[in-house]
């Protein structure tokens, strides 16, 4: 059985190599490839592709070129969402992953187009790697109006809106859509692709839901706990710009309690499964506890 | 055999009904549905979905709910591209299809997100309707960095760039990527979905290539021939803002000759096929000749 650390050590470089090589190799215009690669290769944790691969590994499936292609497709889509979230009309951020954001580096039109290019390319890699229209359905549902983009819309719509500042249900829904849906989809695609029996699939999806909810809370805590240098982006910013999230609603201590509780639930979801690699993802959250 | 007029008269209302009903019915947040529907229901010609359906009809295939879903998915994707092309950072247009553009009506963040929602939703409808990962591959390739977005990037990059003003190869490539790729994909998806034999498929693809090339030239001619009221968007604008296209390179008379030649080639491509509905699309171009 693979541990999280082993999986991470083995596949992070393979993911990075695949991303860089295929972005340049499969794009006719090398300038567009460079603009896409600038953001994709800025050194993210590759959390979502690793989640996909860890789920496959826990299900006892082999990981080869096709599985890497699907995993990397998810990362392209995640990167697109970061580029568009940072745009002047959205969060207007200057730094991301320790570098100038795409629009600061290349211009606003170029950044919009880099995102517009990464999204279909990511979906294409998922369709190609899986040869499954079901995976194409899962990913497009997760990032569409009922998923990630819906959450970003609620975020934009609610910023500086005092009426929702203490509306826990609204904030949970917004955060789930923004971040949770893509995390859930990464695990769900692996259970479908890996043909998990339905009882097993349910356990993994329950884990993914708790893990995904925890991730957004973790991300909010990073905003107050880490310095800008550590996080690679502007921190201590949410409250300043009038963002409503779990943290601004509950404060640091209660938010940490929420996170601890979610971690326990996620651990419980996988009881009886030999899913060590997947459970190891929860250690990520220790640094803000 | 269905004529183009019959097909258009029968399916345009069905397409419009499907789009409106499903956009609201399948979107949880009705405000996001409204923002998407505002642009989708602004009264386009539904050219690309009709091309998909006309190809199926010419191949002798039945058209039902699934085929409509695929056709309408193409229209969602086309609408996304219009919304993003109109953004302040891109062409900065105030009017489209006779209405305020999405960002003028709803705000810039909302317009970016409406496009970001329509793209995956359109791909989802295509995957759902076809239950084919191959169609998902075709459409994502057509609108990605080697297709539509690549063309838009070249357009942005070359505006006011005198070095490419007379570079026919560059301009052909840019226009093909921007407009031709999605038109070709609409026909190609129908040949794959409709299981056209390979010799037949080749004829349809040849037609789609000539038709798609002609369409961009037609669109440029509309810019000078039609008044703003007729076109529903700003016209006489390309030359003003330093756009390079076939028309600015060749002038009106030579461009018209090009268009006539392409129409003849497209007609020739389908010799021997009973593809009356598809050939009827070429009549569209008469109004600028």
TrEMBL record, chains A, B:
Its cofactor is Mg(2+). One of its GO terms (molecular function) is metal ion binding. Gene3D superfamilies: Farnesyl Diphosphate Synthase (1.10.600.10). One of its GO terms (biological process) is terpenoid biosynthetic process. SUPFAM superfamilies: Terpenoid synthases. Pfam families: polyprenyl_synt. Its EC number is 2.5.1.10. Keywords: Isoprene biosynthesis, Magnesium, Metal-binding, Transferase. It catalyses: isopentenyl diphosphate + (2E)-geranyl diphosphate = (2E,6E)-farnesyl diphosphate + diphosphate. It is an enzyme of class 2 (transferase). Belongs to the FPP/GGPP synthase family. This is Farnesyl diphosphate synthase. It comes from Lactobacillus porci.
């Amino acid at each position: 059985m693979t541990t999280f650390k082993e999986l991470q050590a083995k596949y992070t470089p393979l993911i990075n190599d695949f991303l860089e090589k295929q972005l340049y190799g499969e794009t006719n215009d090398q300038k567009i490839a460079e603009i896409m690669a600038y953001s994709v290769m800025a050194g993210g944790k590759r959390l979502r592709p690793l989640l996909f691969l860890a789920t496959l590994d826990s299900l006892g499936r082999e990981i080869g070129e096709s599985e890497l292609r699907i995993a990397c497709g998810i990362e392209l889509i995640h990167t697109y969402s970061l580029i568009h979230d940072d745009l002047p009309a959205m969060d207007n951020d200057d730094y991301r992953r320790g570098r100038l954001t795409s629009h600061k580096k290349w211009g606003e039109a170029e950044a919009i187009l880099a995102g517009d290019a990464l999204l279909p390319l990511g979906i294409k890699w998922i369709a190609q790697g899986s040869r499954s229209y079901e995976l194409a359905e899962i990913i497009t549902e997760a990032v569409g109006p009922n998923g990630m983009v819906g959450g970003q819309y609620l975020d934009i719509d609610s910023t500086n809106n005092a009426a929702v500042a203490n509306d826990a249900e609204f904030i949970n829904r917004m955060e789930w859509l923004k971040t949770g849906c893509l995390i859930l989809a990464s695990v769900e695609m692996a259970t479908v692709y890996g043909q998990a029996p339905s009882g097993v699939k349910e356990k993994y999806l329950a884990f993914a839901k708790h893990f995904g909810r925890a991730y957004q809370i973790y991300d909010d805590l990073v905003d107050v706990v880490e310095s800008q240098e550590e996080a690679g982006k502007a921190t201590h910013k949410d409250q300043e710009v009038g963002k409503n999230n779990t943290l601004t609603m509950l404060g640091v201590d209660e938010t940490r309690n929420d996170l601890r509780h979610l971690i326990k639930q996620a651990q419980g979801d996988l009881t009886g499964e030999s899913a060590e690699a997947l459970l190891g993802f929860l250690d990520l959250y220790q640094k803000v506890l």
